[in-house]
Write a structure and sequence with these properties.
Layout: H1 5-17, H2 20-27, H3 31-45, E1 50-51, E2 57-58, H4 60-83, E3 91-97, H5 99-103, H6 106-113, E4 119-125, H7 131-136, E5 142-145, H8 170-177, E6 202-205, H9 210-220, H10 233-237
Parallel strand pairs: 3-4, 3-5
Antiparallel strand pairs: 1-2, 5-6
Length: 238
């Protein structure tokens, strides 16, 4: 079975961008050329690879080839960097992260990644309970997740704990308190619940390549507070 790199790249672009037109702009070809590459790839494997909807998504068979396309692109980027170190090419690394982490401690990661000359992070914002699925489907190379079980071919590294504090607008709190003593299970009575979130998760990676290893080292963020806090209403208002 022949699976040419341009056809795999077209498949990845369509799945990532959601339309054939957007994929064409990314690849600097026409939408017709992208469509022809996808049809040729589907003919080669004998299966439909893309659900033509809005947005376009990969079928199970297509997801398998998307993983191959991403791995192939990463390997090609590393080879080009090794052979032509002065060309200034940049490798794209997909990473799934939850919104709370992105709003707090993950800013340090972005600040560090901004100093890299050869790597770009492509972020996929997903809940920590589901982010590992993006890794499993090959849509990312790493994920901040609350799932302690590693995806096949990956490793798990603990990142720490995030502590959540309840917050409510004064008017909302007063309205609920006026109905009588609240149920402490709702945590409106001033206690400090500790919810497991992305900090209890791990950063996982599918590759032991130098680029992926650098990403894992950076995402560990040595020296950062082990218990980041989500900003309260007063901080956000300020």
């Amino acid at each position: 079975m022949d699976l040419p790199a341009p056809q795999l790249a077209a498949l990845v672009a369509v799945v990532d961008r959601g339309t054939f037109e957007a994929a064409a702009r990314e690849l600097h070809v026409t939408a017709s050329a992208v469509s022809q590459r996808i049809r040729a790839l589907e003919s080669a494997v004998g299966q439909v690879l893309v659900r033509r909807a809005s947005p376009c998504t990969a079928t199970p068979a297509g997801a398998t080839l998307v993983r191959l396309g991403r791995a192939q692109a990463l390997l090609q980027a590393e080879v080009r960097t090794a052979l032509e170190p002065d060309e200034g090419r940049r490798t794209e690394l997909g990473l799934a992260v939850n919104a709370d982490s992105l709003a707090t401690w993950f800013r340090d990661v972005l600040a560090e990644a901004a100093t890299w000359d050869d790597t770009v992070l492509r972020l996929e914002v997903e809940d920590q309970a589901h982010s590992h699925e993006l890794l499993r489907r090959g849509e990312t190379l790493a994920a901040v997740t609350s799932d302690p079980e590693p995806v096949q071919g990956c490793s798990v590294e603990p990142l720490g704990t995030m502590r959540y504090l309840p917050a409510a607008a004064p008017a909302l709190l007063e309205r609920h308190l006026s109905r009588g003593a609240p149920d402490c299970n709702t945590r409106i009575c001033g206690s400090r619940p500790r919810a497991r979130a992305a900090g209890d998760g791990a950063i996982t990676a599918t590759s032991t390549s130098p680029t992926a290893t650098k990403a894992r080292r950076t995402l560990e963020i040595e020296g950062r507070p082990s218990v980041p806090r989500v900003p309260g209403f007063s901080q956000m208002a300020a």
